[in-house]
């Protein structure tokens, strides 16, 4: 290796802390040892290399095979000589380190050649269809490797919706950000057949952070390299929030893992580390008063529901819900859809009708609403439980969202509410006690009247089972 090349290599190496360097060395040694390729003698020592077979053997369980092949093609794309005389079959140590440096520490410009090669082995532009396959492989691999490494933090493939449709929905959402040089966004069949050059893909990787974050997670967790070291950014650590309140209930959330990852990334950073189930109509009953009782004064929340046509959608409330006849919240609120398409709709600045919750009033509408206006909400759940609407002709004024439900006036099938971030002190164990806790006579009267204590078993102590990993 010439002097200039070794300097470049040293620059890449210097991006890693000493303990990171030894971690990378260890993985390379394991891979090259199992490849059994001695390579050529360079006068001092045998030059170790890594073969595709060795990489496949090492990642057989943590990663789907097609992603291993893509990583291998990415490593092979590192051109050490500058002559670009075709891709080598075996990966040299320098290629391995530069690959790690560019993908884990580099900017979009440094990553792009690798990502182009991961999308397609052939040089030149890539088709939309190839980008779609790469993106779906990448998301599938993230879900697979986090599940395999037990890093889903209490979520699992049993207590969430099927991930397969979630993978396709998230891939479609990320692909919708592809923009040609003239600013146009091809859609549908046209997108699949369009050729995209390197500069367009580089712009896409720069604007869509999920691609880099997912690639980072796949490499760290798939190769088990740098996965526990302190350089991990918050977006890697909070890729999936920890899940509380669903364990042991035999419940599958309306969310799938890809949609949890995507919606969580749009929350304020300080709320991304934990979601806790506050209410599920399948657990707590189909009652608007029960819904209100479980969600008021619990801090920021995500409301998600499914209509009888199978559409899944909801909203993020940035403030504690309060029952009052005024709009509340702020411009961090948003609406979203999960199925049949995945999308987030942020505020427009047109008005401040972010969130609304009212119950038992004569003069004002009673129900839970987000965006739009009275009688014309972007999302409305009526206090007459089971009824709702999503009106947008053509778009909700507050969030620019389209109609989220299958029909403008919909019938509610299931609803869940998740507290995000840490619960406020008042909602935890130090919070106010129920009148039934404070006054045993009140409870006795209820029982004498033959009324069950509705809140019994529903106000579980706040879960802090940190070993919730499944």
Characterization of the model:
There is one protein chain. Strand 14 and strand 15 (387-389) form a beta hairpin. Helix content is 37%, strand content 17%. The protein has 470 residues and is an alpha+beta fold. The strands form 3 sheets. Strands 5, 6, 7, 8, 9, 10, 11, 12, 13, 14, 15 and 16 form a 12-stranded mixed β-sheet that branches. Strands 1-2 form a two-stranded antiparallel sheet.
Could you outline the blueprint of secondary structure elements for this entry?
Layout: H1 3-13, H2 18-35, E1 49-50, H3 52-59, H4 65-76, E2 91-92, H5 93-105, H6 108-119, E3 126-127, H7 128-148, H8 163-175, H9 188-193, E4 195-196, H10 198-207, H11 209-222, H12 234-237, E5 242-244, H13 257-265, E6 274-280, H14 281-284, H15 288-295, E7 301-307, E8 312-317, E9 324-328, E10 334-339, E11 343-346, E12 355-358, E13 367-373, E14 376-382, E15 387-389, E16 409-420, H16 435-438, H17 440-448
Parallel strand pairs: 5-6
Antiparallel strand pairs: 1-2, 3-4, 6-16, 7-8, 7-16, 8-10, 9-12, 10-11, 12-13, 13-14, 14-15, 15-16
Helix pairs in contact: 2-3, 3-4, 4-6, 6-10, 7-8, 7-11, 8-13
